Amino acid sequence: MSDQASEKSVVAPEPVRARRSSSVPLAIGLGTAAVLAAGGLLFSHAQGSTNQVALASQPKPVTVVQATAAKWKERRRYIGTIEPWVSAQIGPQFVSAYVATVRVRPGASVSRGQIIATLDCRNTSSTDQAMAAQARAVETSQTAIAAEAARISTLLKGGFASTNEMEMKQAESDSKQAQLLALKAQLQGSSLQVQDCVLRAPFDGEIADRSVDPGAFVRPGTPIATVIDRSVVRVTAEVPEADFEAVAPGVLVRLHLLATGADLQGRIARRAPAADLSTRTVHLEIDLPNPDRSVPVGTTAELRLEAGQAIDTTELPLAAATVRGARATVVVVEDGIAHLKQVPVRGESEGELFLDPELKPGSAVVLQGRNGVAEGDTVATQGLPDGRVGAL
User: pLDDT tens digits for 96-107?
Assistant: First the structure.
């Protein structure tokens, strides 16, 4: 009984191991099938999202603008200086002396003849007074000698005086007269020196600068103050000799004053008949009324004017072309095909390019994306309704 029981206990597990060994291949097969199915799905998805068409064969997207017809005149731009109508540096011209007083400051208004400054000229005044006294003494002596000569001339007629005596007195009278004239001339020069000690305004105007204070020693030619008259101002500029005809008197000029920001217009009042020998530039002037004295002098003005006759051109934004020297390269779209063209440049102003009319007005010109376009490429164009600027 015990032996049979032991045999049964040994033989009973065999069917269980057989079932387990048969289920393992089935599980492996199912897992492999699932992996293969998932891989197939991923492969088909990847193949479906891949573009099978070459990018080079597709139209290239670009933005275009429409070229427009325009008139072009050559323009000139110069930098000028605003100067007063009259300017004078006030200072001594004949004497050297210490400055006694300076009665004005910059910005002060002065009238003609008003005292600007005075000099300490006591020595000059004393010399002038001494010379005046000497002239009076010589004049008195000459008067007496002339009277004596007249009396001798009367005695000569009666035979009471000799001819030699009369001639000597006449010569002495003439000598004194010449001496008197010389002293009067010196007195006049001395008087000028005395007058030079009081410095006055030569015209109505304003004080632009004060160079010296009281106590300073000045010599002839040393400026003490500067007086200007800016009721009318002059805009002056130097232009190249090649523009001589463009700046003829009467030409209208647009002015921008940097100091005040004002934009004005004026006509060329005068032009130098010759160029400067060192710079080869021609001087011009424009007169501007300035009754309220709102325009400061010594400041900068920009001058703009048009030269020559207006010509027909084709206008484009400057960004739509590549400019090299006198020619511009543009990309023109015709029937969806890009064509590179070189066109002569006629002018440029404020971000606009003016080309020769050989580029027909109305042409579609690539604005954005032209760097990636070659001759003969197919393009897809886009632009705004006004034809000026488009955006992708």
Answer: 889 999 999 999
